[in-house]
Amino acid sequence: MGSGAEGGLFMVAAGLFVLLLCMEKLRPYKPVPTSSLRESFKTNASTFLVNNMVMNALSLSSLFVVAQRYGSHGLLHDWANGPLKWAICFIFFDFLVYSWHFLGHKSELLWRLHKIHHSDKNIHVSTGLRFHLLDQLLEVAVKCCGVIAIGATAHVVVVCEITRMFFVFFHHANVAIPGERWLSYVLITPNLHRVHHSARRIEHDSNYGIVLSIWDMLFGTRKLLVPRKFGLEFVEAGNILQLFSLAFITEYSFARVLHHLPRVDERLDFESAMIRQPSRAREVQKIEGVPRKIF
Question: Quick one: pLDDT at residue 288?
Fold first, then answer.
């Protein structure tokens, strides 16, 4: 895998972003008001530009350098380069990012950073650009450890990263994909990932996969439903400064109080679930009864 393949993949990812933007405009999964979409896109794009200035120097380059210097010490260092080694490396990195994503929801400290990505009230392709810089830097550090552990070559690491970028754009897109139900048993699709951006904790603490959907099926974190609302309650970010400051604001005490107050919509959800699916309702009651530390 040479630099030509990596450059080609990057151009494909950029082309996919533009294509999905057009598809969202012509055939959206869910209509979004133009003003709301414009505000969201502006915030996401500015976040990407600021992040990109730093991450261009630290992300791919860091992984490339680490792979060049330490890739010969990992588990697969003595394997000959070929499709089998590349496939194993890809699967390993996809599982690594799934695990990191899972921790981002379960750790109070990591959630402070990751909630920036979930603060978008409209889910569309540019939501894939909405990340806190510190969140990305920590993820790069985790991936560097993964590079050393697996013994991946530098070019394979870069291809894995660009492929991951490709899928991040894809599964955030506000589009309907033909045959998506069956495709979602192999890959993370937009319909599957929308659940992950639900405003309700019981729904967005699921579907952590980035490329392969097998991890959610194996570890019981897969959910199939249509969320009523996206974003996070009590979290608003109208510009890049507000977006980055969210990481340093905790709603812990506020959230504990709110979880003891009845909510009409959740009460109706629960009563309706009791009629249709009693076992599902008991699951909702059990999980929703645990106060969330940070929204």
Answer: 43
